[in-house]
Inverse folding.
């Protein structure tokens, strides 16, 4: 596939300086916002076709999220793009210094299928706000949304500025052979590794938003009804296909029965007796993932749910318990509507276990006890964390959202997205005079005096 011509055109466009004007960036962001609004219906239909998302879910977690990012960027663009004055050491007197955010250049954004609009256009908002050109690659597994995004972008931006390239893994690897100035990838840890190694060949910096097994830990003093509702909401949103969904729940043995019952009650309240008929309940993205999920529960002790319909790619909200330590369900990120409940007698057991796992994208702890909250935050590392709720830590704009270790690097949302696509350029301006001879060789003072002078000026 011939991508070098497209990227050369984008690079020429970038170097022409047309993306730099801050008012121009505002216009582009407004155009994107208007296009989102005028295409709302087609986007809702596409998200429904790809993932059976209800209008409410699709608006809150996709279209509305991107619109919110745009509005936030428009509000803060002046301050984000402004050079920040820096007071430098006396050694450099007289001088004035600043850090100026500058665009990286030509960016590549690769998105996953689970939030196919938000995770593609959200980063794009950061790329445009920061003054970049961008090639955007939607996931092939959400084809309706991918096509709708391609049309929407094609209608408002020339391809030398923003281009959507649709395709599968071959397309993605073809793109990655080219030199970009930054890459923003959202997807699995496995593919994240491949993206980073392809980027290394060109020394291209990467932001990686990856996956992981986010634990939820429920202590005996938690408000059980509310905890259950918040876990069920976070877990079964988009049929469990959410990177920050609680993967598994650790529950204090003393409240296990109560929590189990409260979770089942919440599932009934949210999705009715037959979630397959609920407009609020999603579908598994494709047959490969459906079969993978079914294999994970085959043989497991199902407490609730387990109903499946391959033709409809439907898998009911499912609770499993009493899993063996080496059960496949506990080995990998589930990324579907299956919730393993794991009991604990002692919090140290949870901490010891979680510390042997790869660092997850999020950690959730449910307890009133501030000391226990702090202990869990201190002893279990994660990209982000939310106490007494799930997922809510990423609904705002100014908490950077990102992973750590195997769950990713770099961050997005609000200013963090702008920063992901910016280079912080340090600039110092100096007059020609004064120009004291002392700074140049040969040395004019003894070594001890030289050290004292450097210390005096804060340079040592
Ligand atoms: P994926 O890694 O399979 O695919 C993501 C994108 O990468 C797709 O556009 C795909 O075409 C492309 N791709 C596939 N093979 C590639 C390759 N060899 N080189 C480059 N690109 C390639 O992920 P997915 O199945 O679409 O999404 C699910 C995963 O994404 C889960 O692990 C989930 O946790 C993670 N995720 C993370 C976040 C986050 O913000 N951290 C958000 C959503 C999903």
């Amino acid at each position: 596939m011939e991508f070098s011509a497209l990227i050369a055109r984008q690079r020429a466009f970038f170097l022409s300086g047309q993306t730099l004007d801050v008012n121009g960036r505002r216009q582009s962001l407004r155009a994107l916002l208007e296009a989102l609004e005028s295409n709302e219906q087609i986007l809702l239909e596409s998200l429904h076709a790809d993932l059976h998302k209800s209008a409410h879910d699709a608006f809150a977690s996709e279209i509305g999220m991107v619109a919110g990012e745009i509005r936030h960027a428009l509000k803060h663009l002046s301050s984000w793009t402004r050079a920040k004055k820096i007071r430098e050491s006396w050694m450099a007197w007289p001088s004035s210094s600043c850090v100026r955010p500058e665009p990286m250049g030509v960016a590549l954004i690769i998105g996953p299928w689970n939030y196919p609009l938000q995770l593609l256009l959200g980063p794009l908002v950061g790329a445009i706000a920061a003054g970049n050109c961008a090639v955007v690659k939607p996931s092939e597994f959400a084809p309706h949304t991918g096509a709708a995004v391609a049309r929407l972008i094609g209608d408002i931006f020339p391809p030398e500025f923003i281009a959507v390239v649709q395709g599968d893994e071959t397309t993605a690897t073809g793109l990655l052979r080219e030199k970009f100035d930054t890459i923003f990838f959202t997807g699995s840890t496995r593919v994240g590794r491949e993206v980073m190694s392809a980027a290394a060949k060109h020394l291209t910096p990467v932001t990686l938003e990856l996956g992981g097994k986010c634990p939820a830990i429920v202590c005996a003093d938690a408000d059980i009804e509310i905890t259950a509702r918040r876990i069920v909401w976070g877990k079964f949103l988009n049929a469990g296909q959410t990177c920050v969904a609680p993967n598994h729940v650790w529950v204090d043995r003393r409240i296990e029965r109560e929590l189990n019952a409260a979770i089942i009650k919440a599932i009934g309240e949210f999705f009715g007796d037959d979630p397959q008929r609920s407009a609020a309940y999603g579908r598994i993205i494709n047959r490969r993932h459906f079969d993978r999920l079914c294999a994970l529960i085959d043989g497991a002790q199902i407490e609730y749910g387990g109903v499946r319909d391959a033709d409809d790619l439907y898998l009911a909200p499912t609770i499993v318990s009493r899993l063996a330590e080496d059960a496949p369900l506990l080995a990998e990120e589930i990324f579907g509507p299956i919730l393993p409940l794991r009991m604990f007698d002692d919090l140290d057991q949870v901490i010891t276990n979680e510390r042997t796992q790869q660092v997850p994208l999020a950690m959730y702890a449910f307890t009133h006890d501030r000391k226990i909250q702090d202990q869990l935050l201190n002893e279990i590392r994660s990209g982000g964390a939310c106490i007494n709720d799930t997922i809510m830590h990423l609904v705002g704009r100014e908490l950077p959202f990102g992973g750590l270790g195997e769950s990713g690097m770099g961050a997005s949302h609000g200013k963090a997205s702008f920063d992901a696509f910016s280079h912080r350029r340090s600039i110092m301006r100096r007059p020609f005079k004064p120009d004291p001879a002392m700074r140049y060789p040969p040395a004019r003072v003894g070594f001890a005096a030289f050290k004292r002078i450097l210390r005096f000026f804060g340079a040592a």
